[in-house]
UniProtKB/TrEMBL annotation:
It comes from Dysosmobacter acutus. This is Class D sortase. The keyword Endoplasmic reticulum does not apply. Residues 1-24 form the signal peptide. The keyword Lipid biosynthesis does not apply. Keywords: Signal. It holds the Pfam family Sortase. It comes from the Bacteria.
């Protein structure tokens, strides 16, 4: 009898345990951290991709024709020739001037016609170096400065090889019409340009090429920064530009410019 009662009591306890309401067992699941899932498809974040203002003119009016590959200005920011120079913002008679007074791409005044205003501009002058312009000795011309007693042959390029033989023509600049730019050493055995900074306004420079002989009159003798390439810009008039180093001043260059007489 005692064994029966013990068994019955155990069964009652088990039954009471199984009949306990489910609400007594509490479970809690933490939700995911905010932002891990379900990002909104509409994003109001403003991403800045450039430091230029949004209203910068990026039309053809502000476009440039890049300089020739390998030319002195090929890696200069905003260098080159304007694609549509007559559409440049500003006055119709404005000019863009470089060091030494070289005028580049100046739009001329607009002329009025019965049908409206017609804009025009003065084109730059430029003569490219072609194989038929070389002399049999491999040079492009002869530069003479009577005041200095200088007569030197001009070779293409401004590398060590060209300057060892004579003066060097800046590749990318004109060889006849427009701005003819030439470099030379200012010391050593081939110090052809060692005294160009002593030239006076009005002195004569002569250049002879396969296209003829041209005389220029000096109008500017100046010291420019080593990174100033504006003196190599194309010109609307016939000029010649001579460049050399400044003794013991590596950050500067002597620059002489002369225009056709």
């Amino acid at each position: 009898m005692k064994k029966y009662l013990t068994t019955l009591l155990a069964a009652c306890c088990m039954l009471a345990a199984f009949s306990m309401p489910a609400s007594a067992l509490e479970y809690h699941f933490d939700g995911p951290d905010a932002g891990l899932f379900g990002r909104p498809t509409s994003d109001d974040t403003i991403y800045v991709t450039m430091d230029k203002p949004a209203n910068t003119d990026r039309s053809k009016n502000a476009a440039y024709i890049p300089p020739a590959f390998g030319s002195p200005t090929s890696y200069t920011l905003n260098a080159g020739e304007l694609l549509t120079p007559n559409l440049v913002s500003g006055s119709a008679t404005g000019t863009v001037s470089g060091t030494g007074g070289v005028t580049v791409l100046p739009p001329s005044a607009s002329s009025s016609t019965a049908g409206g205003n017609t804009g025009s501009y003065t084109p730059v002058k430029y003569t490219a170096v072609t194989k038929d312009l070389y002399y049999s000795g491999g040079y492009l011309g002869t530069l003479k400065i009577p005041t200095l007693g200088l007569s030197v042959k001009v070779y293409q390029g401004t590398d060590a090889d060209a300057l060892r033989k004579g003066a060097g023509h800046f590749a990318g600049t004109s060889i006849w019409e427009g701005n003819v730019a030439i470099a030379g050493h200012n010391r050593g055995v081939n110090n052809h340009f060692g005294k160009i900074h002593t030239l006076d306004i009005g002195d004569t420079i002569k250049l002879t090429t396969q296209l003829g002989t041209r005389s220029y009159e000096v109008y500017s003798v100046s010291k420019i920064g080593v990174d100033d390439t504006s003196v190599l810009n194309d010109s609307t008039e016939n000029i010649i530009t001579l460049v050399t180093c400044v003794k013991n001043q590596p950050d500067y260059r002597w620059c002489v410019q002369a225009r056709e007489k």
